[in-house]
Specification:
The complex is a heterodimer of chains A (160) and B (230). With 160 residues, chain A is of the alpha/beta class. Chain A has 3 helices and 8 strands; from the N terminus they run αββββββββαα. The N terminus of chain B is likely disordered. The chains are: A alpha/beta (160), B alpha+beta (230). At the A-B interface, strand 2 of A face strand 5, helix 4 and strand 6 of B.
Chain lengths: 160, 230
């Protein structure tokens, strides 16, 4: 049966084309969970990299490259309605981000040693929970680490 | 051919021994200046004695403290029960450490007050870790070693049940202050705990400024100043 490009089909086809790039562009980003930073031997217990700007639908794979680490979202540091995650120690975990916003995460046993990170998901409402995320009280070195991450995000233009 | 070493194999063994000697010498050459530059006789905390090592790192709007010593000595001297570290039988619960150990570290310093320029600063606990005394000792020279020593990833889970008496304890704290070069005063309430012999190493931005030993009595405030300041 031949395909006839009538008005209805044209709308369907163009709509599909409009959405196709978004679907095709969904990427997977890798984050290593490490005992020592690859570029700085003085920095211990790190996510590498610790800051990502991603598109809705992208996945971040947290890889248990070194032992005794995990990735877990931090209460109060993800958009309202977004799904929290809590990876097991010594296990990889894939997290797909659908909702725009700021996502702060930690390694549970090493949070207070500053093993934290942020994923920023592009889209409408990207910065809606920024203030709330920055207001979360942090333990130990996490306070310094998040201050640095917010600076990095600002410098990279992710917060505008 | 008889005997363990033949004449044919001896030169090869000699070469191997020579190579090993070279590696050992090289290792010593690398390690010795580091130890001597710190002005200490031991390569890390001395877990055979009751001494406690205290490392200060003054950097970036904060003073970090890392303390290392025998767990029984530290818990007794600081009058801390280390709630959460052991179960009702007194056995260390290593598996529970995966959920974070800062609350145990907070308990360790529960009777300690820190101040800078007469302003009391909260000592935010970073982490605490117990290392079995029969395991190879961890290096404990500076804050980098400190972070590793207090990290969960640096300890194998022992097969046998262990008590605090069987372990070394390492804990890290951070005190946020704009005046991180100022003398830091630590104090304990009257009659709490017991005297502690401290081996102090004080760093600023990763550079050792002073190292010394000092007795810390429960009833006396301890002032830790960088070289040249009292």
């Amino acid at each position: 049966m031949p395909f006839i490009m009538n008005r209805r089909n044209f709308i369907v086809a163009t709509s599909a084309l409009a959405f196709a790039p978004k679907a095709l562009a969904a990427e997977t980003h890798k984050v290593d969970m490490l005992n020592v930073a690859p570029d700085n031997p003085r920095a211990r217990n790190v996510f590498a990299p610790r800051l990502f700007l991603v598109q809705p639908g992208d996945t971040v794979s947290f890889l248990s490259t070194d032992r005794s680490h995990n990735s877990a979202s931090i209460d109060g540091m993800i958009p309202e309605g977004a799904e929290a995650w809590d990876g097991a120690i010594n296990a990889d975990i894939d997290v797909t981000f659908e909702m725009p916003g700021i996502y702060g995460y930690e390694c549970t046993p090493h949070l207070a040693l500053g093993m934290v990170g942020v994923v920023i998901v592009e889209g409408d409402g990207k910065l809606d929970n920024l203030e709330a995320a920055q207001a979360v009280r942090q333990r130990g070195r996490a306070r310094q680490a998040f201050a640095e991450i917010w600076e990095e995000a600002e410098a990279a233009g992710y917060l505008s | 051919m008889s005997g363990f070493l033949s004449l044919r194999t001896l030169p090869g063994v000699a070469r191997l021994l020579g190579a090993l000697s070279f590696i050992v010498c090289l290792t010593l050459l690398v390690a010795l200046p580091r130890a001597s530059s710190l002005g200490v006789d031991t390569l890390g905390a001395d877990m055979l004695s009751n001494d406690v090592t205290l490392i200060l790192e003054r950097r970036g709007g904060a003073i970090e403290l890392f303390v290392g010593g025998r767990a029984d000595v530290l818990s007794t001297s600081l009058d801390a029960e280390l709630v959460g570290a052991v179960n009702d039988e007194g056995h260390v619960q290593f598996a529970d450490f995966f959920s974070g150990t800062w609350t145990i570290a907070e308990d360790l310093f529960g009777n300690v007050t820190a101040s800078v320029e007469n302003e009391t600063l909260p000592a935010h606990a970073m982490s605490l870790m117990l290392h079995p005394l029969d395991a190879p000792s961890v290096p404990f020279y500076d804050s980098v070693d400190g972070v590793l020593a207090v990290s969960i990833c640096s300890v194998e889970d022992p097969a046998a049940d262990l008590t605090l008496d069987d372990n070394a304890l390492y804990a890290g704290f951070i005190l946020y202050t704009d005046d991180n070069e100022a003398p830091l005063t630590l104090s304990r309430p009257m009659h709490a705990g017991a005297p502690l012999m401290l081996n102090v190493r004080d760093y600023t931005d990763g550079a050792l400024t002073t190292s010394y030993s000092i007795m810390w009595n429960p009833s006396e405030p301890l002032t830790l100043a960088v070289a040249g300041q009292v």
